[in-house]
From TrEMBL:
SUPFAM superfamilies: Periplasmic binding protein-like II
Official protein name in the record: Extracellular solute-binding protein
Native species: Nocardioides albidus
Any GO BP annotation: maltose transport
One GO CC term, this protein: ATP-binding cassette (ABC) transporter complex, substrate-binding subunit-containing
Keywords annotated in UniProt: Signal, Transport
Similarity-based family: Belongs to the bacterial solute-binding protein 1 family.
Taxonomic placement: Bacteria, Bacillati, Actinomycetota, Actinomycetes, Propionibacteriales
Key word Transport present: yes
PANTHER family for the chain: MALTOSE-BINDING PERIPLASMIC PROTEIN, MALTOSE_MALTODEXTRIN-BINDING PERIPLASMIC PROTEIN
Keyword RNA-binding: no
Length: 386
């Protein structure tokens, strides 16, 4: 399992008691890329010690295409599809087969300090653009916190910016390494423009080039906090440590890349897959239904702040006690509008090459999308190395 605040361990314990088995948990590394590497190495070696595993959505196609995931029964696939949000089911699908069970589905929203938005004269009841929040933060002496270290979180931001301008990083991904790389498009240039604008503005945090989720949260919680894009757990992030920040915490839909075009928030989450090399496939498949039931999703969300992958999971009573209904509604609206990262067995290479040419953010300019397209293409065709 990926690291969390105890949600998956609690669910495993409850399902162990319900099913009369012993589901134990082992924790993968913190970073998504390192999780992928550890799982891929063990599965490539046909390690039978893994029965069930948490898989980050961008790596689902890679694992399925490699034959690492056990096939789920057709009737179970249909039940899981019917249960899940459409985007969650799509992220769990490869070649028309649901290959993992959606467990939690995360999205990002725009978190803002209400006092800063008021001082800047921003009407947060209306959609706002990246240009607007960068200007608002600059004029009030505050910062816009994002994830832009050279890691998967930066690819998440770039993808959301491109999708928000109506584009995609790659198309025709069924062709594998011969996919059409489309980041050098009008949408890709709009994404580069936003990154360049923030990086060279007064709103850029000092740690912009190394910022991940935690650093963004720290910037937002500091005296220069103004605006931040980040995942759903932020709502409870400041409850105990900084109640004054929580009192000033507002939320709105993810910023628009282009004025007049609806934003496409990031999609993240976890699907749980059964190893093709497990010695206990039948038991693991049975456990999978319990582990990813709406109630289990609700338990996990309550403990971790990572939201359910199904509408029914949002009915878990404890969530309604912790989160305002309008925020739960925003999470679900954002999930329905979310743009997943390119579904491809080669996503790891695409993402690594994309990050390489877009990092550091201060180097991004109008030539960056073209450089990224060429480098991604060369990496996919083994003409260059990451």
């Amino acid at each position: 399992m990926n690291p969390d605040a105890g949600g998956q361990a609690a669910v495993a314990k409850a399902c162990s008691e319900e099913l009369g088995v012993d589901i134990t948990t082992q924790v993968l590394p913190q970073a998504a890329g390192e999780q992928r590497i550890q799982l891929a190495r063990r599965l490539a070696a046909e390690d039978s010690a893994i029965d069930l595993m948490s898989i980050d959505p961008p790596y689902t196609a890679e694992f399925a295409n490699a034959g690492y995931l056990a096939e789920l029964p057709e009737d179970m696939q249909q039940r899981l599809r019917d249960q899940a949000f459409e985007g969650a089911a799509a992220a769990a699908t490869w070649e028309d087969q649901l290959v993992v069970a959606p467990f939690w589905s995360n999205t990002q929203v725009l978190w803002y300090r209400k006092s800063v938005a008021q001082e800047a004269g921003l009407d947060m009841t209306q959609p706002v653009t990246w240009d607007q929040i960068i200007e608002a933060a600059s004029t009030t002496g505050k910062k816009v916190a994002v994830q832009s270290n050279k890691y998967e979180g930066y690819a998440v931001w770039i993808n959301a910016l491109v999708a928000g301008a109506g584009g995609e990083i790659a198309e025709n991904t069924e062709k594998g390494a011969d996919a059409t790389i489309t980041v050098d498009s009008e949408a890709g240039h709009e994404a580069a423009r936003v990154i360049e604008e923030l990086a060279h503005s007064e709103a850029a945090p000092a740690d912009l080039s190394v910022a991940q989720e935690g650093q963004a949260g720290a910037t937002f919680g500091s005296d220069v906090g103004g605006f931040m894009v980040n995942w759903t757990y932020i709502w409870t992030n400041y409850d105990d440590s900084q109640p004054e920040v929580k009192d000033d915490l507002g939320f709105a839909r993810y910023p628009r890349t282009v004025d007049g075009e609806d934003s496409r928030p990031p999609y993240g989450g976890i699907g749980i897959g059964v190893s093709a090399f497990s010695d206990h496939k039948e038991q693991a498949i049975e456990a999978l239904e319990c582990l990813t039931s709406p109630e289990s999703q609700g338990v996990n969300a309550d403990l971790t702040g990572n939201m359910p992958s199904s509408p029914a999971g949002y009915d878990y009573p404890a969530l309604k006690e912790t989160y305002p209904q309008e925020l739960l509604d925003l999470f679900q609206e954002s999930l329905e509008a979310a743009a997943p990262r390119t579904v491809s067995p080669y996503w790891s290479d695409i993402s690594g090459a994309l990050q390489s040419r877009f990092h550091p953010p201060s180097s991004v300019d109008d030539d960056t999308p073209d450089k990224a397209k060429k480098f991604i293409t060369d990496v996919l065709h083994q003409k260059d190395l990451l």
